[in-house]
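>> Question from a student workshop board

For tomorrow's exercise we were told to take the sequence and the ligand below, predict the bound structure, and bring the output to class. My setup keeps failing. Could a helper post the expected result so I can at least see what it should look like? The ligand is adenosine monophosphate.
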Amino acid sequence: MKPDGAAGLKGDETNSNTQTMPQPRQYRLVLLGAPGVGKGTQAELLAERFGAYHLSTGDLFRAVKMSKDERELTPTMARALEYMNAGKLVPDETVLALVAEHAKDVPRGKGFLLDGFPRTVAQAEALENALEKHHVTLDAVLNYELPLPEIVARLSGRRTCPKCKRVYHIEARPPKREGICDDCGVELFQRDDDRPETIRVRMEAYEKNTAPLTDFYRRKGLLISISAGATPAVTFERTLEALGAVVERQAV
Ligand code: AMP
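>> Workshop helper replied:
Here is what the output should look like for this input. Compare the format with yours to find the bug.
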């Protein structure tokens, strides 16, 4: 398969890294990785660079949680948010219904980035069936890797702006004024599921349900593992290099 063309590429093309940058194109990617590896940040950088549609199931659930009064929630969504607050995976059926609802928003022929979905083999199989139906194939599955102690340190220090969603870290990326967003001036919050007691549950859910997905996608020849131990900018460079290799592979 050849690259699709130049539509939708954003970013600074005069950048000194242009040589290593992949050809302009529309990527269809899944981003895998344990909570806290920074795949959400990479997804945002990729979406900005390539103009791709970014679908984060975690963000969708959090948006429902923030925007609705508890009494307005359907019983299914209320249960989903209970799972989320406890650090557990939301049942497949609920996740698949949510994704189906938002899949309609993906512009035809555009690239997309799936962040936090799929999270189980059943979800991956459902995704595969849905893509096949639309004659769409994935280009790659990027698997961000980080040792467990570093993941726990990243998650427990993470703070988020409720308004612009910017993510800080109390040590690695602190705001100028403690606890306050640099851009919005509002108070930062810690996600319920980033509290130490919930992190353990989330990591167990990841090991049990999501780690097997790496084998699933490796067997399909789609998996690319990327070390996420550096800064977001360095990890992004590694991601672009990996995508360059995908383009080369597809062009032969
Ligand atoms: P995230 O921001 O991707 O870490 O997602 C936050 C939480 O949302 C997870 O801990 C789950 O409770 C729920 N969630 C998000 N995506 C999925 C998914 N694909 N399957 C099951 N639960 C999910």
